[in-house]
Structure formats: C-alpha cells, structure tokens
Amino acid sequence: MTPTEQEYFVQQITSHQPMLHGYIRSLLPDADRASDVLQETNLVLWRSASEFTQGENFGGWARKVAYYQILAYYRDHQREKLLFDAELVSVLADASEQQFARERDWKTALKNCLQKLTEHQRRLIQERYLPGGSVQRMAEESGRPVGSVSQSLYRIRENLRQCIDAQLRLDSGEIPK
After folding, report:
1. Do residues 153 and 125 touch, judged by C-beta distance below 8 A?
2. Residue 131 phi/psi, 5° resolution?
3. Distances, alpha carbon 96 to alpha carbons 16, 79, 85, 135, in Å
4. What global pTM score does this model have?
5. Which DSSP symbol is given to 51?
C-alpha cells in the first residue's frame, strides 16, 4: 500500500468510527463488549487493508467485517446468559443494513433536491442550518419580520420534502420513469 493509499485508508477508518460503533452497539447492547468488538474490527480492517479498493463503499465493507466480528464474539461467549443467538444477530444486521441503505438514498435525494432550489433558497437553508444559524438572526440581518423568514423556510422545507418523497418513489420504481 502506497503512503497515499494508507493515508486514505486511515481517514476512512477514522471517519467511519461513529457509524461502526453505533452498528456494533445495535447488535451487541453491552457498551464494554461493543468497544472490544470495535477494537477487534479495527484490527481486522487494518490487517485487511490490501483487500479494500479505493472508491469502493468503505462503510459497507467495514460493517461486514464488524458483523463477522460480532458473530465471532457471540460464538466465543455463547455460554454467557442474555446474549443474542447468531440467527437474531443476522436478522438485526439485515435490518441495520436496510436502514443504512434508506439513509443513503435519502441523503442522495436531499442532495439532488437541494440542487433544484434557487440560489436564494439554498442560501436561506444554509444560513438557517449552519452552526449558530437562527431565524431571529436571519430576520435581523435581512430586515424582514421573523414570521416572514419562518414562512419562507417552511415553504422551502415543504418543497424539499415533496421533492425527496418523489425522488425516493421514483428510485424505488413506485413511480415509472
């Protein structure tokens, strides 16, 4: 692995830690055990770095590795009470993967729908949702009443919601292209 590939891989592992921890915690409710499995997962990911191709879905690959580490944990600790069996872990993991896919689809639809807004609408949304953004501050800076700014943001969010719903239905095949 070249230094550039190694740097990319470290960035991917680092940026995916919260997601991996949440995924493992959803399948292994004990926080200490989940932290142990996360560390094991990170070791396996690092040892398997050469198997990962830059540009592939790192999150999906890392979750698959974590899934197998969780199964190994349950296998090694099957005598302990209150542990899930492998079949339940599999069902929970499938549900979790479906949730990740729904979130990814939703984020993609949101990104596409944001691009359909006018520049002014995008700027309003960005101002509102940037850290420290508030309707009150926006109203003061633009010289508009708070209610007017709130109404504008409501209409933009409603347009985004409708656009996202339509995009998701289109992508799922519910609406013919």
Report:
1. yes
2. -55, 130
3. 15, 26, 16, 35
4. 0.52
5. G
- Return the DSSP state at 1: -
pLDDT score of 160: 93
Q: How many CB atoms lie within 10 A of CB 37?
A: 23
- C-alpha distances in Å from residue 134, one per residue of 59, 125, 153, 165: 33, 10, 11, 26
Q: Which two tokens stand for residue 56?
A: 């592939």
Residues 101-132: tens digit of each pLDDT: 888 889 899 999 999 999 999 999 999 988 88
pLDDT value for 71: 87
Q: What tokens does 151 get? A: 């109404």
Name the fold adopted by 1-83: Rna Polymerase Sigma Factor; Chain: A (1.10.1740)
Task: Tell me the C-alpha to C-alpha distance, in Å, between residue 148 and each of 136, 144, 152.
Answer: 11, 7, 6
- According to the per-residue pLDDT averaged within each range, which of 2-16, 34-48, 91-105 is highest? 34-48
* Mean of all residue pLDDT scores within the chain: 86
Does residue 60 contact residue 122 with C-beta atoms inside 8 Å?
A: no
Rounded to whole angstroms, the Cα distance separating 9 from 51 reads: 11
Name the token pair of 58.
Answer: 């790192």
